[in-house]
Structure formats: structure tokens, C-alpha cells
Specification:
Blueprint: H1 2-5, E1 15-19, E2 22-26, H2 29-35, H3 41-56, H4 61-80, H5 85-106, H6 115-130, H7 139-151, E3 204-205, H8 229-248, E4 253-254
Parallel strand pairs: 3-4
Antiparallel strand pairs: 1-2
Helix pairs in contact: 2-3, 3-4, 6-7
Organism: Aphanomyces astaci
Pfam family, one: Cpn60_TCP1
InterPro entries: Chaperone_TCP-1 (IPR017998), Chaperonin_TCP-1_CS (IPR002194), Cpn60/GroEL/TCP-1 (IPR002423), GroEL-like_apical_dom_sf (IPR027409), GROEL-like_equatorial_sf (IPR027413), TCP-1-like_intermed_sf (IPR027410)
Amino acid sequence: MESVRTTLGPRGMDKLIHKGNKTTISNDGATIMGLLDIVHPAAKTLVDISLSQDAEVGDGTTSVVLLGGEFLRQAKPFIEENMHPQTIIKSYRKACQLAVQKIREIQVRVSETDSVAYRQMLERVAGTALNSKLISSQKHFFSPMVVDAILSLDTDMDISMVGVKKVPGGSVTDSFLVKGVAFKKTFSYAGFEQMPKYFKNPKILLLNVELELKSEKENAEVRLDDPSQYQSIVDAEWNIIYDKLDKCSGAQIIL
């Protein structure tokens, strides 16, 4: 728990962890806890809590570790006095209810109908989350970008639909949002100068099959009564290929 305590907050410090042949610099609680060699069962529980928080929410990993560790610290004297664990659990659940009630009392609601106030609130929330990140000095640049990315999602808010592509070189302020699908590819093949770099409303082909005749992987036996039937089998195979080609015809971009 002490390993991540100093990473919390807007002035939290980064940790440099050398494990094996890899060196990691991070102030993310889940990343740090995942890299540490932890043996104690209670500490492993905190690691699992941190990873679950990261998977479910994507933030607050350090806070959940510190809160969980403090709960264990405060419960230790009562356990040593032979208090039943269920009594302690009930107390924590009651405290949780009081905390949730207090949060609901001080919460601020912003109606989505007021689009300006709603967006300003989202940008402030994004900026607060970025305060503890390496890009905190550019939070005014990234906050609108983050909000645009989230607002482009459906109502189910599937965060996995938002990805980050890292390109070496340049500045972090060269970052931009692509409202679509981004592929990290370089134009370094022969003849790329003549290839078009921009398409407007193109037909895109997503291809996961090979457009060629392939021999059967499994043993197959075909019995013919007439030698002329052999040609019909060959024609049927080619017709399958022609049908695929007809569906692909006209595509401007093939992925």
C-alpha cells in the first residue's frame, strides 16, 4: 500500500519499476500493483481489487487500494480482540450507505438538454481526471478531445470502442481524434506516391477469405457416373469464386 500512496492526487509522483528486462514508469495504481511481486494474501486481494477497478471503471485504482488497505488496517485491532468478522463487515456496509447518501446530497446534476452546460461539466470532469497524468499540462488540449470521443459512443458507453494509436515523433499536441477506424500504417511501399491518400464516401471491403481455389483439407471422395460430370464440378468451384468477386467488385478500400 505504501508503494502507491505517494502516487495519489494531482501532485502524485511517478514510480520507476524494473522487472526482468523491462523498465516501467507509471503512477497508475493498477499498473504498479500488477508489476510488484506480492506474496501476502491480503496484499494480493488489494491487487485484485485494483485490477477489477481498472477493468470496470478505468480509473481510481490507487484510491481503491489505499481505501482497501486502510479498511484492513482499521479492522486489525478488532480482529485481534476476537470480534466476529461479520460484525466488522456489517459496520463497513453501514458506513458505505452513509457515504453514498452524502454523495447524493452534494451531487450536481446537469441536464443534457442544456448542451453548453453539459459539455462544460464533462470537460471539467475530464480535466480533473487528467490532473494526475503525465499530460496534465496539456489537459485543456485533451479534455475537449476526450469529451468528443465519449459523446461519439452509443448509449451503452462501451469504452473498448475507443482506442489510442501511438506514433513516434512529433509532439503530444499533434494528437487528434479520428471519428472512425484508425490503422497505424506507414506509406513506405513501392509506388505509394501514386496511390490516393483520401477517399470520400468510399466502398470499403473487409476481407477475411482468400480469393483463390484451395484444395480440400479433409479427405473427400466424389464418384462420377459420366466423365462429363467432372467439368461441372470444376465449373461449380469457379462459380463460387466468381460470386465472391462480384460482391467485391467496386470496392475502393480493401482491409
